[in-house]
Amino acid sequence: MGHLSFVAPSMIGRNLHHTSGFIDAAQGFVAFSGLIIGLVYGKRLLSRGEAEMRRAMTGRVLMLLRWSIALCVAFVITIPLLPNLPAFLTSPLGEAPILAGVLAIAQLTPIWGIDILALYIVFMLLTPAVLIALHKGRWRAVALCSFGFWVLAQTGLSTVWMQMASTFIGLDEFSLQLGAYLNRLGWQVLYFGGLAVGFYMAQDRLDVSFMRTRAALHLLWPSLALIGVFYVSKIIISQGPSEWGDLFEIAALSFDRLDMSASRILVFMAYLYVGAWVLIAGPQSRFPAIAASARGLLQVLNSPALVFLGQHALQVFAWQAALVYLFAAFISPHLIGEYLLFSEGAVVLATLTIFIPAALNSRFQALRKRQKFVPQFQ
């Protein structure tokens, strides 16, 4: 819904995404992807050894690469054919769509909507070495390396180097740019931070009993204060420099998204802490409203619908990216001048279509499993 709000007049979508209000959904995607990878493949490393873990990770990366290539090819072919697309959807292809597609397949330039998949693939390629280092007790070395790359991202040098390389090889002539929309050197701290937590969980060393103590309750207030500062800053940023002047510049720099600023990381950690406290300690809270809200949130997170989507996340991800292009081309032009309720309804209905690829993939997996167990006669 957040992505659809870029091409449709949807207040719900805008307030569910990083444009205003809640924290960036992409941060959750990257951090929790690292956590799940650390948990699943960390257990495989502990139980079956390095070779088996590397083999499993290689298979997963190859599958993601196949999807990435297929999506890049599909988007390069269809984007020039679709009408009414805004500039942010078409500009990544520059004046040479085929060249842009080749660079995107090589993970060297982004295509809107699927660029985060390239980010994920690069991080997963580095994951086996990092998991092995963690297994050998080199936690400090991993943390220092991750922190060093993050600091480099904050200097802006990596972006400058990419711009220089683009000019040197002549990509400027085609309005193309090397690099990723999201700076991998900055965003990696979320993934590998999540990976370390996931590996800690794989070792059964994560103790959450602290969240039920009075000290944990006291930490809620600074966390909520950070979230409040972020929310006010997003309001200032959304108003533009003409309204707030120097305050706009300070807020925009402090909560820079592309390079993953320290302020944005702190706010993300605050959201995580509040969420963790609600889920772990909330159901036993002495305040009935908090306890009821926490139990309700747990029911939502464990609902069959969300679990089903999670089981087919890759297919859902691919469809939601394509959905934005199709919505912009064929539906958004008909929403101009319509009542807001009509527009919101169109966005909600479009969002519900993410269950279609999940259902199709579920059916496909069932057929494959059935064929696997059919006796083969010669």
Walk me through this protein's architecture.
This is OpgC domain-containing protein. The chain crosses the membrane at residues 20-42, 63-82, 111-134, 141-165, 185-203, 215-237, 265-284, 305-327, 339-360. It comes from Octadecabacter dasysiphoniae. With 378 residues, this protein is mainly α. The protein is 71% helix and 0% strand. It contains 19 helices and no strands. The protein has helices at 11-15, 25-48, 50-78, 87-90, 97-105, 115-135, 139-155, 157-168, 184-202, 214-218, 220-239, 241-244, 246-254, 262-280, 288-301, 304-311, 313-330, 340-352, 355-372. It is globular, with a radius of gyration of 22 Å.
Helix/sheet category: mainly alpha
State the end-to-end distance: 52 Å
Largest sheet: none
Task: Output the helix-strand order.
Answer: HHHHHHHHHHHHHHHHHHH
Query: Average pLDDT across residues?
Result: 90
Tally of individual helices = 19
Summarize, please.
The chain is mostly helical. 71% of the residues lie in helices and 0% in strands. It contains 19 helices and no strands.
List the helices and strands and how they pair.
Blueprint (H helix, E strand, L loop, with lengths): L10 H5 L9 H24 L1 H29 L8 H4 L6 H9 L9 H21 L3 H17 L1 H12 L15 H19 L11 H5 L1 H20 L1 H4 L1 H9 L7 H19 L7 H14 L2 H8 L1 H18 L9 H13 L2 H18 L6
Helix pairs in contact: 2-3, 2-6, 2-9, 3-5, 3-6, 6-9, 7-9, 11-13, 11-14, 17-19
Characteristic terms for this protein:
378 residues; mainly alpha; globular
